[in-house]
Structure formats: structure tokens, C-alpha cells
User: Fold these one by one.
Assistant:
Number 1:
Amino acid sequence: MTVRLTNFTNEDRKIVTQLQNFSVLEHYKDQSVAPGNAMNEFFMAKMGVRRRQLVVTLDGTNTLVTQAGAMQWLFGDVNATTGVKGVGDFFGKMVKGAVTKESAIKPEYVGKGTIVLEPTYKYIILQDIAEWGRYGMSIEDGMFLACDGKVEHTIAARTNFSSAVAGNEGLFNLSLRGNGVAALESNVPASELITVDLDNDVLKLDGSFAVCWSTSLQFTVERSSKSLIGSAVNGEGLVNVYRGTGRVLISPTTPSTSSLFRTTHD
């Protein structure tokens, strides 16, 4: 049995990024619009605000884990499972989902074929998890879209819980490690992200500008000055601090929280 795919890509839809078996399909021109919003769609496209879709090919030896409800369509001999390997694994996934604000049970697709995820206005960033070293990478809440089934999901905790609460930050983040590709949804394109490589050094950010960071780094939320008086004088309050050796990807500006960026599978 074979599947013929016609008009999947054309002058309006193109593959813009590819890493191993993961590809990003970008809609350069969306002609399926109503007259009332055609002008908005036109100027959005001019600014690079376009729909994007993740496309993943399975060859029978690899698997795909996605955020719940993300799949749009697939073809080939592909089946979806819960990825749960027993009662203990189920409760472990429930705990991870509760503390990281990610869906607890993520569908796992197995077989041979192609999966296309639902479109999103966010930017899809592909990362080779092996390049982040033994401890992998931690990501901000809500960024996980999909990953290779060999990638391990763990929990990364803040070092000082009290200051994390005071800084209006979460206590835990999803951490990905192992071998394989992960697809992240970002309000900021990869071309704008600044890479900071720390070698036994310190990075301080006044706000949630970090998109992802090496799990090997010590991540805390602290006062910008050692004294309360000093913090009042320099006009800063609590800052996110990353210590050690590793990498941080940061956004140069505050990401937009516009409803346009909300994905269709939220």
C-alpha cells in the first residue's frame, strides 16, 4: 500500500526548517480567508505572522510524542497509544503534568507514515536534545509541542522555592534529555533568540526572557541586590538567576501574549 500526496507543498506552503525526521511547514499566503479579515491576514503575512505546522515522518523504528490534541491528520500505518507503561508510569505522568502545567498523558504515535500537527501562529523551534548534554534542556511552561519517543521527560525544580513564589514564577519546569529532536512553540522566532553559553558563570534576567536553558544550570529567583535597600535604590526587584556551566536561549524583547498566538489545540 502506498499513499500519493499531491499539492502538500506549493508556492503558498513551503518546508522552511528540517531536522532529522522533523519538518516545519509554513503557510506564506493563506487564501482561505473571509473578506472581513483579508486585510489583517495580508499585513500579518507581510510581518511574518503566518500559520506553521509540524510534519514528522516515522519509518517504523522511531516514535513521536505530542502534546494532547495536537494531531491534525496522518497517513500510513500509524497508530496512537497513550505511552503509559503501567500504573506506576501513569501516576508518574500525572505528577509531572500537575507540577509542570503540561498535559499529563501525551499521545505516542508508532508505525510507518507521516503525522501533521494542527497549525499555530507561534514559531516552531526544532532542537537536537543530544546537543544539550547529559542533563538536557529545561523549557518554559507551555512550549512543548512534540518530540522523538526516545527523549526522556523529567522535572526540573527551582533551587529556592520561596523566592520562586515571590517572583511569580513556577516551581517546576519540564526538562527534556536524551537523544532525538524536540519541537517547541515559541512567541519569538529562532533567528531572534540570543544564545548565552556560561562557563562557571552567572546570568541574571529581569523577567521571564529565558526560552530554554541547560538543566545542569542552577536556576533560582533572587533579589537583584543582597539587601532590600540596594534593590530599592537600583529600581529592580527579583531576578531570574542561572549559575554554572551550560546554555541559555533568551528573547531580546518581551514576547507577545496576543490571542493570535494561541494554538488551535489549546
Number 2:
Amino acid sequence: MSIWEAILLGIIQGFTEFLPVSSSGHLVLFEKILNISTPTLTFNVAVHFATLISVCAVFWKDILAILKKPIQKLTLWLIIATIPAAIAGVLFNDLFEGFNDSGVTLGIGFLITACFLIISSKLKPGTMEKENMKWYDALFIGIMQMVAIVPGISRSGSTLTGGLFRKVKKEDAVKFAFLLSIPVILGGFLLETYDAVKAGFENIEILPIFFGMIFAGVSGFFAIKIFVKTVLKGKIQYFAYYVAILGIFCILDQFVFNIVL
């Protein structure tokens, strides 16, 4: 992998990890469009670590509050909401990796994301704070996150929609969605680290990994800021238009043009 490819993939990973447009879907699409070889395990470990740092940098106050008082309702809600995606990841990992390799779900996945975002933009603002949720609210949001394992379906978009649907306040729905992303990103990072250790960290390319990390972390930081502002201003539908166009393009390419997918 060249440095420029690493920078490009780092930027794509950073921005799409947190914007409601599906990072997995964009990475699959750009790898196919630009004919970029699949990143090594070591590169994946590095960029996931960088995006983990970026979300912690933005929400450090909320994370610190949880660490200072780990036994609280919010901690329990985050654990409950993490369970569905964790179970699905363990049971159906090979299936989802097949979806990633083929890109077969991209068009439908992007359109589902567009639907989620349109729904979230139409929902009346809720008043419930994240700490006052019930266990079934957290579970519902967790199921929405589980759906987003499919490439093309955005995790941040689906969890935000889940929170707003359960009448959580906009600001708290956004915070919960990003706090919920931490155990998922951390879990992916640990699994990829384990796989990389088993493989012996072969094909380590220091400079591409370094630049990929830097650009993934910085773009991830700004992506979170953009997403939060967009949601609070009630402009989330613009992301819906984008992924809808992308979904239509992918479907047309799959069944008509056969250029990319």
C-alpha cells in the first residue's frame, strides 16, 4: 500500500466512521472504484485505534464521568445496548465478511440508511435524558446498532434513529450513540489485534500505517463535530439525500452497468 492510498483510506475511515453514511460501505466502494488492495490487518488495527482516540477526545468529559462512577444506570444501558451487536458479530462474522468482500449489500444498505435518517429528521424532539432510559430503550438502540453490521447501513445513523424513536433528547441521543460506538470500535480493534498477532504482524509498512492513523484520527475528530452540529440544527436529512443517491448508484451498477461492483 502506498502512502497516498493509506492517507485516502484513513480519511475515508475517519469521516465515515462517525458521519451517518456507513464506513464499511464506503471503504468497500472506494477499494473497488480505485482498485486499492484490501488493507493489511496491521493497517486496520492502526486506523481503528486512531478513530477510538478521536471519539474519546471529543467525549472525554462524558467518559470521565462514567469512569469516576462506573456503577450507574448509563453504564448498564451501554452494556445492554452493546450485547446485540456483540452476539451478531460472534455468530455471523463470516457472513458479514462475505458481504464486505462482495459488496452485494451496499445499494440496499445505503438506502436503508437513508430511510433511517429521513425517519429521524421527521421525529418530534424527545425530552428523555439518556440516564432516564429504561432497559428496553437501550436494547432497542442496541438492536438498531446490530443491524448496522451489514455494510452500507450506518451505525451512527441507526443508533441515533433508535434513540430519537425512543424519545431521547437530541443531544443525549447523539452522545449515547457515540458512547455506544466506543465498545464496538474497541472490540473490533482487539479482535483485529489478536488476528494480527496470530499472523505475526506480517507486511508491516511503517509510513503508510503512520499516515493512515494520523488522517483517520484527525478526520474522525472533525466528523464527530460535524455530525453533532448537523443533528442539533435539524439538518440530518442532507446525509439521507447523499446515501440515497449512493444507494441508487450501487444498485444500478450491480444490475445494469457492472462497472464497479
